[in-house]
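Q: Now give one record:
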Amino acid sequence: MKIRLLIILSLMILFSGCSSDNYPDLMPNKHGDYSVLWIKDNGGGYNEYPLVFNKVNKVTSIISLEEAKDEYPKLSLIKQPAFIIFNENGIVLKTYIKEEAIEFLEENYNDK
């Protein structure tokens, strides 16, 4: 019985940490759409805007990792560039690899 309770409590904590209450301003308001938080590369060079981002509901770009950590501490960002993709329920992908984010969006938008 105690193990069941522990499992249930653990799941509740896990789901509450990933809930849409965390950063509703980053999430799309339409079912089936996506939004992106993009913490750009700090190399000082040009950050090419991926074409698939034109299909996305909203793209929020931040240049500084420290600014992103301050504004969105629950995302536990560790480096840049970072790409966090949201649907109407919360985070669906968190990656530090640009090509992975692009591939995810292309696959999901080509299905529509």
In short: The first helix runs from residue 2 to 17. Residues 45 and 63 are 11 Å apart (CA to CA). The radius of gyration is 16 Å. Residues 2-110 form a domain with the Glutaredoxin fold (CATH 3.40.30).
